[in-house]
Input
Amino acid sequence: MWSKTPLVSKEQAFQDAAEAELSVNEHAPSLVAIGAAISMVTLDQSRAKSKIDQALAIDGNNAWGWLRSGWSKTYQRDFDGALADFDRAQTLSPRDPFLFNIEFGRAFAAGASGNYEDAIRLVKKGLVAGPGVTWAYRDLASFLANADRQLEAEEAVRQLLLSYPNLTIQRVIDGMPPTVRELHTKFFDGLLKAGVPGN
Output
């Protein structure tokens, strides 16, 4: 969402993660960061999960690790496992600065499984926890459109375009984890229906 060249940024992030793998040893936060980067820029969720799992084996109380494990499981369609990991992250760190991302993770898992009303409720909860995280109006717009709440979806797009005035569906596809395209095609259909320009 922030990069003008998201595909180039993804490739650079993958190269940086691969380079970091060579020297990280057993530093749990670094392993989580590597796993998170890999999960967000490639289809190789098993590689991402192995790094996050390695981190959690070293430090089972790493809330960020459980958060990223939840997202990785969401990308693999293990929604029950993802929700359990998000719950564990919040239990370990109930006032975590990434609490908004825990809620967005829960929301995305709900949306990807077709439970749009829960997804809407959860992404709104995340927006309260992280009021400056305006990219989440992207998710809200899609979930609202897929729930046939068109006027609200269009308002969410208006809010989204205030922060990202040149946003298009293609830019969203390029910027999101590539797994999402396979996992949740209705996500992009919802954005188009809500009023995000196609290209």
